[in-house]
Design brief:
The protein is of the alpha/beta class and about 130 residues long. It is about 25% helix and about 20% strand. A hairpin with a 5-residue loop joins strand 1 and strand 2. The N and C termini lie far apart (about 100 Å).
Length: about 130
Amino acid sequence: MGKYRKNKNILAVDLTPLIDVVFLLLIFFMVTTTFDKYGQIDIDIPTANVESPDKKLPLEIIIDKKGDYFAIKDGKTFPIDIDNLGNILIGIDSVSVTADKELKYQIVMDTITKIKKQGIENLGINFYE
């Protein structure tokens, strides 16, 4: 006796009409849409008043390997006496201390202490080789 296999029909949904309807709806909405130029919203954008800051460069005090002090002010370099630092810092609001990398750190700290005693709060520290 032979075995018979029954072919089961698999139900498949045909998507072609669905895709056609979707494309027709897409075309319908694209054609019927109106673009209104006059429906814009006016936005008041705040304006910023940018003031150009004074380009006051800080006084730069340079300490070399030998422990000699130099100052750069207005693009000019001149040697200074560290004991007379109070007279040099009159009218200065920011100072940058640049020291040699191999210099003893205590020398740099003494210089910073003398600058802070003059009431200067803006202080920068740099090291070079």
